[in-house]
Amino acid sequence: MYRDKQILLGVSGGIAAYKAVELLRLLVKAGADVQVVMTRHAREFVGPLTFQTLSGNPVHSELFNLIQEQEIGHISLADRADLCIVAPATANIIGKVAHGLADDLLTTTLMATKAPVLFVPAMNVNMWENPLYLENQARLEQHGYHFMTPAVGELACGWEGQGKLPDPAAIFDFAQNLVGSRDLAGRTVLITAGPTREEVDPVRYLTNHSSGKMGYAIARAARNRGARVILVSGPVDLTPPEKVDVVQITTAWEMHAAVMARCDDADVIVKAAAVADFRPLERETGKMKKGDRSQLTLELARNPDILADLGAKRGRALLVGFAAETDDLLVNARKKLDDKRVDLIVANDVSEAGAGFGSDTIIVMFLDRHGNIEELPCLPKEEVADRLLDRIQLMLEEGGGEKLRR
Ligand code: PMT
After folding, report:
1. Is 22 exposed, middle or buried (CB count within 10 Å of its CB: 0-12, 13-18, 19+)?
2. Ordered domains of the chain (ranges, CATH)
3. How far apart are CA 59 and CA 38, in angstroms?
4. What's the gap in Å between 357 CA and the centre of ligand 1?
5. 157 is catalytic
């Protein structure tokens, strides 16, 4: 997403300015060309040489620096940016831009740019909650400026609460949303991720090794491409992506209810979750005692097949299923494509190391209803998510689910 993009990183004067160094490092590593603009106060917290060394570009601060103006004026900084990120953004900088004030290089550049602007506020919790600040933010949001929500925690001023600069990795992730292709703008994508848990008794449950990484990567990528994303997630250890509607569920029946209640809103449904096919027939109300038994037989009841129910419903959404197989990958995946009446199956051989449950990479094939097969090498789940969305986008252009299934 960031490769060859021109990013303007604005750093205003707050203690969190040191975290902007890590954000810069991530952006440069991802292939972006970053121009750093520091306010005078920001230079009190971190020396410009650090930003200059990491970005490989001179750091800009002075509005009327004649030498720099000749090489790269403030209007040129504004014009060539694909995205401006202000991190940390103080109440002062936000207040100035909200009122059209441009009295230094950063505010002037922000006023002059046509690129998307992301403010990442960091301040004392009382400032953050001050209605004057909130009005300024709301005013900027109305005009199309973007904001990340500060994190909660111990603040440099000694207070506890909301106001911390989010993790640089979270800012990096969120900002991708604003530089990439917006080919899914106007679409709603419903994604399921993670395992389900089926309780045996109050302390035990049946589940599987799904970490949710694949489904969350698809959710993030779809959001980055402009889609409205609904993520129905089983219990996982991942932080939900920002600006995604997350519905937390535990059991297969809860996932079924959550998906069925929202499927009519969706243009695309991607079922990356590993749903338990069975649940204990009876859930014990108290902890089961082993007694003097040497064996125990657990009776299981069949869970609903959510994907098959969606296929049977034949709604308008494009339906994408996954098939996790340990043998006869193609045969079994094609059977799922037909039996569950889906438009596309992502087949993954989960017996291969680094290729499925829990790993950061995956090996998949896309199978469609016309017999086309696209085989991908072992790739990070983020990249597979984008390749999958490329494929989905083409299918949407061809008319989407209802038409393809006719
Ligand atoms: O979460 P990760 O650790 O990143 O791992 C990713 C993954 C391996 C979980 C993912 O790539 C994957 O393969 N997901 C589907 C796992 C699975 O349950 O496959 P299946 O072949 O049993 O099911 C086929 C399809 O039917 C799936 O889309 C599944 O969501 C759906 N299904 C299955 C059973 C059921 N009761 N209801 C369903 O909707």
Report:
1. middle
2. 6-176 (3.40.50.1950), 188-404 (3.40.50.10300)
3. 7
4. 10
5. yes
pLDDT at 66: 47
The one-letter amino acid at 111: M
**Which of 237, 226, 235 is closest to 273 using CA atoms?**
235
Q: Tell me which residues of the chain have a pLDDT lower than 70.
A: 64-74, 400-406
- DSSP one-letter string for 242-298: TTSEEEE--SHHHHHHHHHHHGGG-SEEEE--B--SEEESS--SSPPP-TT-S----
Closest ligand 1 atom number to CA of residue 322: 28
Task: Express each pLDDT in 38-86 by its tens digit.
Answer: 999 999 999 999 999 999 999 998 876 645 555 556 678 889 899 999 9
* SS3 label, residue 401: helix
- Report the SS3 class of residue 96: helix
Give the residue, by CA position, lying nearest to ligand 1 atom 26: 307
The ligand 1 atom at the shortest distance from the C-alpha of residue 306 is 39
pTM for the model = 0.79
